[in-house]
């Protein structure tokens, strides 16, 4: 069964007249008649009974009508979804965001997306950077914001902004007297461990040996809990400078060595991208991202 046969059949059901059905379908009547005869041959019997100026559905025609209407409805739905997918303004898109990327730095970018793509349905999937990379390589994710020191060769990264790592602490901590904090100063400090922290990976990428030991008091995978504990004075923590979101948390940049990371918009190289993904990549590449405070 071909789609033009479906259209012709339903047009005849609507008009009960071959001539008017042909006009409605913008086709010559002989072509419509041949298509219906071919459909009748496929289904094993007459679908219409023509009596002078009147046309009626046969018993087989009435039986087949709801099935053919279902085909037409499903086809129209599939076409609408395809059009929706191919339009960056009207589509659902999933954006992976590394869990250590500060949400306050994303607000302006998301506002820009809403401005240029007002009807986009954006799902934000938060996960550690390595998990996002795995999802992308497996085809479960098309686009992500990631800040890892090293990425697989298969991925394509568009650098967006660079930020330093900093030590976060509460008011009254001895670190308040410092303009910057040498890594060695962390030795012996009460520390709050972020389970998804990539600081050690970026530190190792610089080729330096770690020569300090901290006293880990709390460990959590939730950034909001760690920040609440920092603010309550339970210890300090190293985190990207744009990550702190609770008012009152003080920070000083890490030095000796200075440790930075670059946050990039990441895709898998060589794969075809949806129009929405291409639009998001374009907007991200020209957006005025924050610069490190150094």
How is the topology of this model organized?
Elements (H helix, E strand, L loop, with lengths): L2 H13 L2 H7 L4 H15 L4 E4 L2 E4 L1 H27 L6 E7 L8 H10 L4 E7 L1 H9 L5 E4 L8 E15 L11 E2 L7 E5 L4 H7 L9 E6 L2 H9 L5 E4 L9 E6 L4 E9 L6 H12 L8
Parallel strand pairs: 3-4, 3-5, 7-11, 8-9
Antiparallel strand pairs: 1-2, 5-12, 6-10, 6-11, 6-12
Structure described in brief:
The protein is of the alpha/beta class. Helix content is 37%, strand content 25%.
Description:
With 294 residues, the protein is of the alpha/beta class. It has helices at 3-15, 18-24, 29-43, 59-85, 107-116, 129-137, 199-205, 223-231, 275-286, and strands at residues 48-51, 54-57, 92-98, 121-127, 143-146, 155-169, 181-182, 190-194, 215-220, 237-240, 250-255, 260-268. Helix 1 packs across helix 3 (29-43) and helix 2 packs across helix 3. The strands form 3 sheets. Strands 3, 4, 5, 6, 7, 10, 11 and 12 form an 8-stranded mixed β-sheet that branches. The mean pLDDT is 89. The protein has 2 domains: 3-85, Winged helix-like DNA-binding domain superfamily/Winged helix DNA-binding domain (Arc Repressor Mutant, subunit A, Orthogonal Bundle), CATH 1.10.10.10; 88-294, D-Maltodextrin-Binding Protein, domain 2 (3-Layer(aba) Sandwich), CATH 3.40.190.290. The chain is built from 9 helices and 12 strands. Strand 8 (190-194), helix 7 and strand 9 (215-220) form a beta-alpha-beta unit.
């Amino acid at each position: 069964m071909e789609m033009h046969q479906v259209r012709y059949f339903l047009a005849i059901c609507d008009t009960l007249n071959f001539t008017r059905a042909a006009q409605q379908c913008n086709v010559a009547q002989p072509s419509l008649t041949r298509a219906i005869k071919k459909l009748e041959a496929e289904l094993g019997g007459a679908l219409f009974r023509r009596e002078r100026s009147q046309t009626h559905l046969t018993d087989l025609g009435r039986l087949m009508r709801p099935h053919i209407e279902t085909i037409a409805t499903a086809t129209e739905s599939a076409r609408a979804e395809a059009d929706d997918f191919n339009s960056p303004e009207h589509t659902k898109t999933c954006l992976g965001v590394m869990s250590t990327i500060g949400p306050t730095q994303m607000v302006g970018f998301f506002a820009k997306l809403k401005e240029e793509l007002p009807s986009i349905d954006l799902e934000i999937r938060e996960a550690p950077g390595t998990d996002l990379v795995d999802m992308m390589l497996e085809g479960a994710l098309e686009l992500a914001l990631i800040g890892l020191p090293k990425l697989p060769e298969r991925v394509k990264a568009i650098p967006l902004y660079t930020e330093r790592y900093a030590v976060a602490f509460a008011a009254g901590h001895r670190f308040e007297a410092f303009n910057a904090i040498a890594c060695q100063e962390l030795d012996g400090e009460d520390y709050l461990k972020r389970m998804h922290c990539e600081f050690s990976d970026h530190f190792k990428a610089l080729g330096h040996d770690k020569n300090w030991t901290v006293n880990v008091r709390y460990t959590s995978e939730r950034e909001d809990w760690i920040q609440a504990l920092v603010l309550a004075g339970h210890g300090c923590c190293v985190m990207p400078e744009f990550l702190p979101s609770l008012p009152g948390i003080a920070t000083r940049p890490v030095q000796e060595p200075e440790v930075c990371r670059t946050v990039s918009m990441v895709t898998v190289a060589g794969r075809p991208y949806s129009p929405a993904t291409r639009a998001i990549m374009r907007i991200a590449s020209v957006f005025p991202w924050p610069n490190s405070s150094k």
